[in-house]
Amino acid sequence: MKTKLLFLFFSIYSCFIFAQTKENTKENQKFYFPSASFSNPKDFEKNLNNLVLEIAPLEINEKTQTFSDGAETIYLLQKNYQGLENYSKNENFPKESLPFKSFAEAMIADPTQGNQFKKTFTENFSRDFNKMNGPAKTNIAKYFDEKMVSSFQKMANGFIDQLSKKKTDSLSYTDAKKLIAFESQKRVNSAILPLGKNIVKDYIVEFFQPFITGPMWISVVKPKEVNDLPDVSKDYKILFEITNFSTKNTKETAFKNENSSLIEAGRIMNLHVASGISPEKLHIVVVVHGSAIDFLLNNNSYKEKYKVENPNLSLIKQMQSKGVKFVVCGQLMTWDGLTLNDITENVKEAFSAKTALSNYQTQGFVLYQLNDKD
């Protein structure tokens, strides 16, 4: 009996270890994709096709009907439209990927994307979309929101630029999946956007920027059933702490773009104004230290370090014009050999970021730590 139990234990343990090893192998695998091909369309297409062939068996098992997240994007790049349509019948097919399903059905009907393609997509997408519940319809509508599509394209371009800067001949599993997702979306967008936008128009979320203007991610939306609003008669003291210049995924390209934490600070400011609080009731301080100090550099200092103009200055100056106070860490300035002449105008230097944070919190400021790492 003891021997049988011991054998059973080792059998289960071995299966567990094997399953873990298999999964770890996939997650840790590297995929051949020379960075030089990002600047050569012909090589890029060839290597993308090879990448899809290599990764497809790891994500799709039609025999057992098991599919990883994003399987539909692989089918699209394979131009395996029948496979995608079959997958759409699986109970685990993501509802928000309905536009991909409708695109595949239309391509089966008319690979030339002519009139029959348009007719099939419009009829099938409209039929299936109207069967969805509210949350699903809202998620699907994002594919037809021109602002979202534009921001998505900007993200895709930034990601490809980031990969090209790595100067390696391989992609990680995560980067490979992301590249496939971006490319499949890009190839479908132009065909489906004009066909589906009128069908989903009532579910496209309205974005607006009531106080600070900038990229789409600084925008806020209008909830429909708000019944808990802030007291608009009170003053609101808001303290932001920003420490990172880049995230772990944007180290190679962060210098070209506005700082993501600064954008999030702008979004939070917009949330307060959109909720009914007057801008005159807002008292805002942004304390900057760590590597984030770079986004406060003036153009001359920024150009000397990164060879481009500082993309953050317009947003910083707009915030300052609306009463936002920027404070930089004096300890870091000293250690880095910087003076206020290296920093953009009208920035205050505190003895340290820590004492500044203590000072403003004792005055009743509410602290938001915006330290993106991902």
TrEMBL record:
Keywords: Signal. PROSITE patterns: PROKAR_LIPOPROTEIN. The keyword Signal applies. Coiled coil: none annotated. InterPro entries: DsrEFH-like, Sulphur_relay_DsrE/F-like. The keyword Signal applies. Residues 1-19 form the signal peptide. PANTHER family: BLR3518 PROTEIN (PTHR37691). This is DsrE/DsrF-like family protein. It comes from Halpernia humi. The lineage of its organism: Bacteria, Pseudomonadati, Bacteroidota, Flavobacteriia, Flavobacteriales.
